[in-house]
Specification:
four-stranded mixed β-sheet, three-stranded mixed β-sheet, globular, alpha+beta, single chain
Amino acid sequence: MIKNDSVIDPLHELVLPKWATTLGQTHHSATQLLMSDGPYVFRYCELTQAERRMIPGNAQMKAGVAVGDALQDYYADTKWSLNPITKKLMPYANAKKGTEKSEIIKDVLEKYNKYQPIDPKDQEKFDKYQTEITEVITNGFLAMEELGAGNLYPITCEEQISIGQEKTDLLLPYVGRTDFALGGVREVDGVIDAPIPSSIVELKTQWSKLGKVKKNGERSFISLHAPTAPSFNHVAQCSVYAAFYDYKVPVSLVYVTKTGYKIFDCENTSLLTSSELEKTFKNLNNVARRREKLFGMFENQTRENLIKSVAAIVDPNWDHPYAWHGIGDEFLFRAKKLWNFT
């Protein structure tokens, strides 16, 4: 075991296995564990963090960020963000608290409009979503009000949470960030000993899909309604937040579209009950444990050989519907070279 002084959770000293230090791995996340092995190995092992940041975004992702920013700017009392000096996430008072909704929407639209689409189809989506963002944000406000956000204090957004070996047998901790932690406190024997949310809210946005090109050359779009059931991947993300609070804090999964919203919780889906969330979290642990053992098989190799050895026994999954889409020709060529597909 090699000690690494680059700590994700500033409250705990983190000791990493040799393979993790070699690869620059410090933690697990639901996003990583929900990826198939091939795309995960390329993005989080082959590529450095700086290179991952070079992968272009897309209009849909940027629009979702705009909606999340608007709702957090309006409701948050505290927002976690990167300290420019320490380079660690820290809580800060929300300077935009009390700003009118119209001003907040104006600000996020101005920021979204600076996005540069990556291709013609992305341009069409970008143009369309410019007309949808206000409606989606408005429905987001309605959803948050139904959840009681307007009457709760404090509300914390983007808080970094960490689950270590006190709760799992994994070598690396989980790290995640909650969209909204709605107010509340924890009482022990009638004494308030620590703040604890009354609920956690995970926000998801859905946007109109590209349709056919009309005879006049214009692109048609298909409007989406909120789903009738939550996505398993989204439930898996919720399971990490639930595990952090020992399944004692309810988690709501909110879908927002331009046509409305849908709130899922333990009252309308068994997937978000504490027992099911615990099962889902255990399934994530199984994936994490398998990957740790896989990398551990080759931990005495150099970084380059370790990555090649792991890549040789996992499926790149080239047919995945989105894992390899939009990463750019240079990175795609590099991925195919790693699996000898060039």
